[in-house]
Amino acid sequence: MKKILNAKQVGVVLLCAVLATACSNNPETTTSTTTTEAATPAAVQSTTTTAAGVQTARSDLIQKVEYDSDDNYTDWSSSNPTQIMLSGTAATVNGTGVEVKDGKVSITAAGTYVVSGKLDNGQIAVKVKDKGIVRLVLNGAEIYNSSTSAIFVEEAGKTIISLQEGTTNLVSDGKTYVYPDAATDEPNSAIFSKDDLTINGTGKLVVQANYNNGITSKDKLKITGGTLAVQAVDDGLMGRDLVAVQAGDLTIAAGGHGIKTTNDKAGSEGYLSITGGTFNIESGEDALHSKGGLHIAGGDIHINAGDDGIHADVSIAIAGGKIDIAQSEEGIEAPTIVISDGQTSLVANDDGVNASSGSSETAAEGGQGGQGGQSGQSGQSGQGGQGGPKGPGGESGAASNNKLTITGGYLSVDAKGDGLDANGSIVMTGGTVIVNGPTDNGNGPLDYDGTFEMTGGFLVAAGSSGMAQATSEQSTQPGILMTYNKSQQAGAMVHMEDGEGNTILTFAPPKSYQSLFVSSPNLKTGASYTLYAGGTSTGSAAKGLYDGGEYQGGTKVVDFTTSSVITWLSESGVTAARSGMGGPGGNPGQGGGRGGMRPEGDGAAPQRAQQ
């Protein structure tokens, strides 16, 4: 399901490429991260691309995020801080740079301020006209406000909120804000800063955002430590130009987006960077959302999203960390997606991984799609349909710049819509990908409009057969697409081995399936193979894919010999590939159906609108 993007957003698909930066010079790469290894076939582990290859793919999408020395927590006791003791609707101040009036505690000078106690209905306000740096140490503080933000940074060069070790701190705003006039609409978050904001330390901060957002910076928001528990009516964390998380333990429950950037000005789109930390995000909309690029190189991320799990309007680069998207509409979506490392598992009600520019592109695919291929008779080729006219909108389909690139890492997809979907092209050179795709014939485990070039790595994709595609003939690594006469039960094991008895695949898809595609570095052209059904394996399984162990007790389905880079297979043996699913793809200006291929004689391809 595509999002509506304006022409400006679509036009900056490759913006991040101009910011290519050597990862070895990026401070983010020095951050320690935790990555859990997944069960991966031993033969595949050696096929991951070299460090140089991954470097090239990553640097095209990654911006350099700089962390200043004051972004990290340091001991404040030797900095001659001003002490602020909150009590009811008043405060006692020991030091300079603070004014207190009617429950509002105003910080007017740069320096370090240590806040403790409870403010029943008031605000900590920062207004430093000389743009100095303010460090606000929360040392067991509770700040409540019934009509506006609990902490409001009106002006400062940077504000640093430090969470003192061993303390729990709380901020809470009202359900309704009172503004001085109808033209004023900010602050609008429990913690709101017009300038750069950093949160660090080892203590805990609880944010109760009853009006709108939890924590907002209209410039850059950085988190380098602390335990944050944010509950927000709308968005959890928001930075206009940047949100960067280096460390910390974040729990976010948001009615809107979990973490987002908002700057969509061409040439300066907001950027979201995660290089460490632990995340538990429940969101009504996207869990991670960027108006520009989005980069994940570390961390342990758990997501339950009402819309996309991870979404960016320009690009997504996943280069490390552990990502578990337990619920989403679309798991990962951006015009350009590069996965080079890490362990990613996702569940999606629609498409799993979607390289897409939005609904303007869908409109460009346009008109009525071609007729699906007619049912073949005993191996006779069905007929491809005629393409429909191109509708209004921008470049799309085979001519689109949308691209999914996989160079390494581990990716597991469980999708009700398309598994891997590109309104453009797909390239895979390394890594392990498991797709448990759709059970309905209106979607496919693999779905692309341009090409899918497979030159390395391991890919297995199971699902329905109506829209099934294999990788492209441009691939250099062989692949096999098996289509069964009828749907196979969920958990029904499929095993493939070569003529010498070496295992190519042992897989028990957790959902029913009628097509299965596999590409492995162990597959050869001009070699003999046997496909089995049922049986048992003593290997270890993850997402249905078995690693190691011994297979026995299966029933032979078919013997076959590969003769080309893509082998089309049925229970009767090798078949010839043919066009279907709306016929050949159109060139720009022609529109038309999609150019996917299906084996002969496996029935009509149900027609559907491109999702």
Question: Could you characterize what this model shows?
Answer:
- It is built from four helices and 49 strands.
- It has 611 residues and is mainly beta.
- A hairpin with a 1-residue loop joins strand 1 and strand 2.
- The protein folds into two domains: 250 residues, no CATH class; 241 residues, no CATH class.
- It has a 25-stranded mixed beta sheet that branches. A 14-stranded mixed beta sheet has the order 3-4-6-8-11-14-16-18-21-23-25-27-30-33, with no helix packed on it. A four-stranded antiparallel beta sheet has the order 38-37-40-45, with no helix packed on it.
- The N terminus and C terminus are likely disordered.
Task: Based on the model shown, name its key terms.
mainly beta; 2 domains; 25-stranded mixed beta sheet
Count of runs of 4 or more consecutive helical residues: 4
Largest sheet: 25 strands, mixed
Number of domains: 2
- List unreliable stretches of 5+ residues: 1-59, 359-395, 579-611
How much strand content do the residues show?
over 45%
Q: Terminal Cα separation, in Å?
A: 5 Å
Nearest-integer average pLDDT: 84
Shape: elongated
Give me the count of strands: 49
Structural class computed from helices and strand pairing:
mainly beta
